[in-house]
Amino acid sequence: MTRPRTCTVALLATLAAVVALAVAFAAEQWGGLVPCALCLWERWPYRLAVVLGLIAMLLPRRPARIVLAALLLAVLAEAAIALVHVGVEQGLWPSPLPECTAPHLASGSIADRLASLPARPAKPCDEPSYLLPWVPVSLAAMNLAFALAFAAALATYLVRSQRGRRRRR
Predict the structure, then answer these.
(1) Which residues of the chain are under the pLDDT cut of 50?
(2) Cα–Cα nearest to 129, from 45, 32, 44, 47
């Protein structure tokens, strides 16, 4: 069985990260879902993965593998953030972000209280969003599963290509 080239794997990793971001954007724009603060944090590792994947496509094999290893770390960080988010949704622990809680209104006049409200209403992080209402799996849980599968596939490639390199020596 032939192994995929490093450039092909970098392209596939980039596309996987783009798909994850596109689903989040589509759910927000066309699905009418409002992202919470943790949802917004979950997008950053995918953005980093896109950049690292593009860089890996341009590099020779050995440096590209190093960049792909960094991409794997970004995807694992994504899985960790998604795990925290799922735990918050399930009530296992409180959110680490202060934006996930209700705003604390300032004491004083009504004008002071209105001035202390956020400019845009926020969605609580412990309230799950469902992409498909008939499937009882939240977007955060879907993202966790996707990130773990993405990381497993990339780690498998990196390990197998390293073994193949050792055999050729």
Answers:
(1) 1
(2) 32
What is the rounded distance in angstroms from the CA atom of residue 53 to the CA atom of residue 169? 27
d(CA 12, CA 64): 13
Cβ-based neighbours of 64, under 8 Å, separated by 6 or more: 6, 7, 10, 56, 57
- Overall pTM > 0.85: no
DSSP single-letter state for residue 9: H
Task: Set out the domains of the chain in order of their start, with CATH numbers.
Answer: 6-101+122-168 (1.20.1550)
Q: Which of 27, 25, 36, 32 is nearest to 123 (CA)?
A: 36
Render the burial of 123-138: b for 16+ CB within 10 Å, e for the rest.
bebbebbbeeeeeeeb
CA distance 147 to 83: 10
Closest CA to 70 of 47, 90, 53, 93: 53
Dump the DSSP string for 58-122: HS-HHHHHHHHHHHHHHHHHHHHHHHHHHHHHTTSS--SSGGGSPPPPPSS-HHHHHHHS-SS--
